[in-house]
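Backbone-to-sequence.
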């Protein structure tokens, strides 16, 4: 139908537009997934760091308590 109304160049332009839209959607979805992965990675990294710091604090507390400093 497009070819009959707009000719061969119209059909080619229509297909190019569809191809560009698919490419943009693919890039957008890929970027969204990258952002989600980064958020998850940073969240787990921060949680593990906080857990490690809390573990060290508890360890130092019990060592100090055993030595009679607390």
């Amino acid at each position: 139908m497009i070819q009959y109304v707009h000719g061969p160049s119209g059909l080619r332009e229509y297909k190019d537009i569809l191809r560009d839209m698919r490419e943009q959607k693919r890039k957008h979805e890929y970027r969204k997934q990258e952002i989600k992965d980064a958020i998850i990675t940073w969240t787990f990294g921060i949680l593990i760091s906080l857990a490690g710091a809390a573990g060290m604090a508890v360890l130092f507390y019990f060592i100090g308590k055993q030595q009679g400093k607390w």
